[in-house]
Amino acid sequence: MAMKQTQTKLFDFSDVGLDFCAGSKNLFPDRFKKMLALGYNEQTVSSVAVTGNQVVLTYGMSHGYVADRVLKINSGALATINSGEFWIDAVTTNTVTMTIDSAPISVAGGFTTKVASLGWELVYENAHIHIYKFKHIDETDMYARLCFQNATVTGNRNCIAVGVGRTVDLSTGVITDENCLGDLRACATVADATANIRWDFSASTARTYDSYTYSQGLAVFGKGMIAGSKYHIYIAASPSTSTSFCFNYGIFPLQSNYAQLNYPALLAANNGASTGGIGTNSASTNRVYVGKIQCLCSGTNASSAFKSSIGTTSYYPSEIDGFNTTGCFPVFVSTLAEGQPVGWIEGGLYQVAYSNSGYPSITNSTSPSITSDVDFNSNVLLHHIGSGVIWLCSPIEEIGYGS
Questions:
Q1: Burial of 317 by CB count in 10 Å (0-12 exposed, 13-18 middle, 19+ buried)?
Q2: 220-249: buried (b, 16+ CB within 10 Å) or exposed (e) per residue?
Q3: What is the pLDDT of residues 158-187, one digit of tens each?
Q4: Rounded to whole angstroms, how far apart are CA atoms 81 and 84?
Q5: pLDDT tens across 41-97, in order?
Q6: DSSP state letter for 37
């Protein structure tokens, strides 16, 4: 067995060390900090067994790790290999098995491990305002300003106002890039983002769920998963029990020859003021911005950023592939007003060619889900938009090769 890539990582809202739901407003700043920059669920290894490139870590108690996460080893001989990050192949209650090429024959225990973060750097934090540094696909620095919902505010949905830019004032916590959409640069609260472009996570303004765990919120919000790397993040979950109210948010690498467009694509939504509930099918509220330019991703107008029902049927014909295989294609981006091409998302997000039937279950207890890429033998995070006629996916595979 060969070592698997560790650049792109997968998280589940249910993971030990996260354990939150889409309505957990009070938990969001801490959980995003863990996923983006810090990692989570630190445990101490008691012993290590090495057989060829198969390495088994044994812990003195139940570790809480699951297969297909990336484990970060913080010290010792293994920490010098692949930056100390390794894909978890299998687990038992107190062991983790990984494939590590060039592992030493003998490795002492006593070191700590945790689930690795996406590798973003938290460069500013002031209460509910975080600024993270991440990488554009060309390896230049980019900044994401996350204005979380203030935990003391009542009568607002759980949501995040997200601004993306190349320059930032870290003394004030403001993005200074003029190509960042206006009030996302410096909004003091989510409600101050008057353009209403944000990542919405709950459909109602109720405070009942503010500190809910994953299991407490499961009946209402269902599953939630995140995929990402130092170049991107994809968030897939649902804000309520309605199959129409699901969300797909993120930041994805895109390049352009125009300076105003040489930014990642921000996938968000406009569900109106944060002081009211969501009352519209999520397919019609998607918004895509590159810099401060509103764009489309294969859609036809502002109310449908993505085109519905791409496939005539949901599978390849049997003479091509006999096992109900569905294809996907790159997300092409164009300006909204003029329909002029901007480029395409270079990794981390694809649209799936399902038709208006034959697609997976769209209940919030079954979607998002993990499927497999048969060509590259990698996991794929799969989720729908609206009532099942638009599907997106994010392969858990390497997307950048700069370093």
A1: exposed
A2: bbbbbbbbbbbbbbbbbbbbbeebbbbbbb
A3: 999 999 999 999 999 999 999 999 899 999
A4: 5
A5: 999 999 999 999 999 999 999 999 999 999 999 999 999 999 999 999 999 999 999
A6: I
